[in-house]
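Fold description:
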Amino acid sequence: MLRLVAGLVLIATSTSFAVDPPIPADERARMLAEFREQVAVLNKAIERAPREVALYSRRGDGHLFLGKFAEAVADFEKMIALDPRQDAPHWRLGIACYFTGQFAKSAKQFEKYHAYDGGDRENGIWKFLGDVKVLGLEPARRAMLVYSRFDREPFPALYEMFAGAKTIASLFGRIKDRNLAGDPKVMFFANYYAGLHEEILGRHEEALALLREAVASTWGRSAADGPVYMWQVARLHYEMLAAPKP
């Protein structure tokens, strides 16, 4: 069955990651093999230099991208233990905590980051996502961070959507009206966070379709320095949602 959501035709079936992946299986396998190799190299490097903050940073990312979330949290917290200045700007720790189910800790980390950089609504969305799991939807909306200056597209409209002031249809309508639908970066973030919005509202199929669209993004997969960070995070979210439930 096809369902029209926010002006996009989305597959709304019992699609699973195994049978309908957004990226080719061999491409995914090569990517994960590279992360495993990088972690193995970093393990040896850390044995030689156990106080080198940058090594834990890189290994934490590798663990995160491999879905080893507890290990990622441990590496990121080790960075802070070695250098407390790493704490406030460490949004990656907030993401890793979210994936481990430490939602209050995740929200707190993004609150710290807001004090460090008060202009990034993406950070505010992640705080909200953690708060929803702990407080519930309406209390989390009341606790949303306040922003006073413009952020990059499409985050102003996305933030309004999470606050309950804008629908997904109006989000994608704004993108179309501003001639941004051809911008793959804008569309990646719109699809990814719209997918998370649907997930928190319990709309599983709509969430899965939007997340799949984000992960299939050619922008996210073809950046000059390899798949971009938030594309990897979106991939993890998609794979967790698409995994067959026991």
About this structure: The CA atoms of residues 30 and 36 lie 10 Å apart. The two ends are 24 Å apart (CA to CA). The chain has 13 helices and two strands.
